[in-house]
Every structure is written in C-alpha cells, then in structure tokens.
Amino acid sequence: MAAASEEAIKQFSALMEQLEEPLKTTFQVPICSSSRTVGSLHPCYSYCVFPCASPNGKQNSFVLVLQRVGNLWSQCCFCWHVHQGYPRGTLVRFLKAREWNVPKAHKMLMDSLNWRLQNEIDTVLSKPIMPSDLYRSIRDTLLVGLTGYSKQGQPVYAFGVGLSTFDKASVHYYLQSHIQMNEYRDRVVLPGASEMFAKQINTCLKVMDMTGLKLSALNQIKMLSTITAVDDLNYPEKTETYYIVNAPYVFSACWKVVKPLLQERTKKKIKVLSGPGRDELLKVMDYQSLPHFCKREGSGSGSSSDEVDCYSYDHPFHQQLYNFVKQQALSQDTVGPLKQGSMHVKVPTPDLEEAKIIETIESELNNLRGGGDGISRSFNRITIEGP
Predict the structure, then answer these.
(1) β-bridge mates for residue 156, sequence order
(2) Mean pLDDT, the chain, as a whole number?
(3) Residue 17, Cβ neighbours under 10 Å: how many?
(4) How far apart are the C-alpha atoms of 128 and 325, rounded to whole Å?
C-alpha cells in the first residue's frame, strides 16, 4: 500500500506541475518581496518562536500565539493559499478524499481551485461582515468556537449543532462566516499550533454538541448540508475526529440509518459519546481545553456563569478573528469606511454520497414526524437559492 500511495502522489504531483495561471497562484503562493524559495517555509513563521507557548502552558498562551502569527501574517505581502507551504500534504488530503484515485482527486482539486477563483476565496479574510451587530447576531445563531488544543496539538473546535438557528441573517452571511473560519484556521490557527507544539499540525478536532436537536430545529438541514458540501469538496481531511456529545433520540434515529451509507474512512472519524463525553474527551485533551458544555454532567451548549462561552462574539478567539479581518480590509482599501455587504458564494453541488445521506435523513425525519411516538413536530424543508 505504501508503494502504491507514493506512486499516486508522484502522479498527482506531475499533474499539478502542469497547472497554469491563475489557478497556479491560488494553489501555490504569490511571490513575497522577502527573499525565499518557493515551497520553503515563509520567513514570518520562523520568527514565531514563543517561550511561553509550550504544550504545558498552551491554554494560557494560545490566543497570544494566534495574535502573534496573525500579526506577522498581516504585515507581509505573502499569503498562503491552498497548500500552506506543504503541497505534498495537500495532495494526500485530496487523494484520501477520493480513495487514492488520482484522476478523481485531480478533478476534485481542480474544481476546488476554480471555486476559489470564481468566488474570490483567497481574499475572503479581507471582507469583514459589517456592521459588528450583524456579526454578533451570526455568532449567536451559528454556534462555533475554538476552545484550546488536544494533547497532540490539534486545535479543538466546538459546534452547537442543536441550538444553531441560522435565523438572523441571509444564507450568504452564514456561508461567508464559515469560510472565513476555515481560512483563518488554515492560515493562522494551524500555523500557530505548529509553532506552539514544534511539529507540523494540519488537522483539528471537532466536538459537536447535539443539545436541543429536535425535529423543529432540523428545518436548518439545508444550511447544514451547504456548509458540509463546502467543507467536503474544498477543505477535505482537515478534521481528524468528530466527537458527538449530548445526542438526543432524534440524532440517534438518524445516525442509525445514515451510518451504513458512510465510507469506512468516514465512519472511523465519527465517535458518538455518552452524554457530554467528558471522560472520553479527557483522554485526548486537558480539562481546560474541554468545551464548556462538556465540563459537567447535564450541561449543554448554553454556558453557565462560571464558564467561558466559546461561541460568544466577545470571546477572545472571535474578537481576534474579526479584528484580523477588519485589519486586512483596511490595509487593502485605505479609502473610505468599511462597507456592509455579503459574499455571494456559489454553493458546490454535493457528491452522490452526501446527497444520498441528506435524502436518507429527510426520509427518517418524516418517518419520525408521522410516527406514533409522541414526538411529532412540524418539519418543513427549506430551500437555499443560488446566488
């Protein structure tokens, strides 16, 4: 298998060497004014050595690391795009996503590069969601946050799946915010983690809180499927493990019918834990990196007065991200104030596997709605119009 994998990487690499502009720039990197060799680590990262940023003190320093890396990133004309200085790793990610089939992986990557080009994804971190009250509303209804790092150094993201309502802005703003989170992860958070743990870190962990998930809440299934399609087709293999916690009956019923449809590689990534999953999560992360909804029995996505709400607009991570985007916008457009406006990103078409999963979930929800188990609730499909 190792020999076959190396041959696949070699073939894929040869295909990518034929890449022409403007896709080449999107995949590789623009030339920086600093003296460097293409494919080598950019000088700004060599400066990111923080005495306080060690694994033993990571929770106290991870925001500082993000700030330092983010500041260095924003001060130079250089900009990592898709492969983040590690083209081989990117090729491997796309090969894994297509079961090591080189032609399929190549098509997937080319489609992704074209998607980035057509939707100006390379500059998404210079397009703040304005005004700030709108961004706050998005943070209140698309619950996601960075809580710390695993023992192996992967950033730990928390998602309040069950309590995210997606009802305070248009779909375009939610999609823009999600893509900005992805790009900030790849350009700032992961490089910061790599510096802090003194090794290359390319993946994260996600803790998915299903508290509040019910039939009426799943009216947002189309929004969730849109986000999933964006991630699967353009950011493959960036999550090492998905931990599902606080799963109610609705999730369990859907999971039972969806699990057989998943590829073995995908199933191995998803771990459904009992309750808040604290004991299991403590095997892979320290207590201080646990999401607030996992720190005590009976807790959910809502935070208590003695816990930091990682979803909040006021959380240091979200403040750092939002200020970073505003700084990028000001550095590129020095004339006039920042303007309100959403990106109209074209939603990728889900692949056949994902489309089948969505269809199966909808069918199961309709079965639950019509069943005589006392949990019948209204379930109306929603439609996301293209831009």
Answers:
(1) 148, 205
(2) 80
(3) 9
(4) 6
Q: Which CATH class is domain 128-370?
A: alpha beta
Greater model confidence, 44 or 309: 309
Residues 6 or more apart in contact with residue 120 via CB below 8 angstroms:
343
Of the candidates 39, 43, 36, 42, which has an alpha carbon nearest to the alpha carbon of residue 16? 39
Taking the alpha carbons at both ends of the chain, their separation in whole angstroms is 43
Name the residue with higher pLDDT: 249 or 182: 182
For residues 178 and 142, is the Cβ–Cβ distance under 8 A?
Answer: yes
d(CA 191, CA 48): 9
In three-state secondary structure terms, 195 is helix
Cα(181)–Cα(161) distance, integer angstroms: 16
d(CA 147, CA 21): 38
Amino acid at 81: H
Residue 155: strand, helix, or coil: strand
Is the pLDDT at 46 greater than 50? The verdict is: no
Mean pLDDT of 24-43: 48
Distance in angstroms (rounded) separating the CA atoms of residues 290 and 282: 8
- Kindly state the tokens that stand for 144: 């996601």
- What does the DSSP assignment read for 29-56? -PPPSS---TTSPPHHHHT---TT-SGG
The residues facing 152 across adjacent strands are none
Q: Are strands 144-149 and 155-160 parallel, antiparallel or unpaired?
A: antiparallel
Going from N- to C-terminal start, the domains of the chain cover: 128-370
HEC assignment per residue over 271-319: EECCCCCHHHHCCCECHHHCCHHHCCCCCCCCCCCCCCCCCCCCCHHHH
pLDDT digits (tens, 9 = 90+) for 318-353: 999 999 999 999 887 655 566 665 678 887 777 777
In degrees, to the nearest 5, what angle opens at C-alpha 27 toward C-alphas 21 and 28?
90
Residues 74-120 pLDDT 10s: 544 444 556 666 789 999 999 999 999 999 999 999 999 999 999 99
Provide the pLDDT confidence category of residue 216 given band limits of 50, 70 and 90.
low
**How does residue 375 score in pLDDT terms, banded at 50, 70 and 90?**
very low
The DSSP H or E segment spanning 231 is: helix 221-234
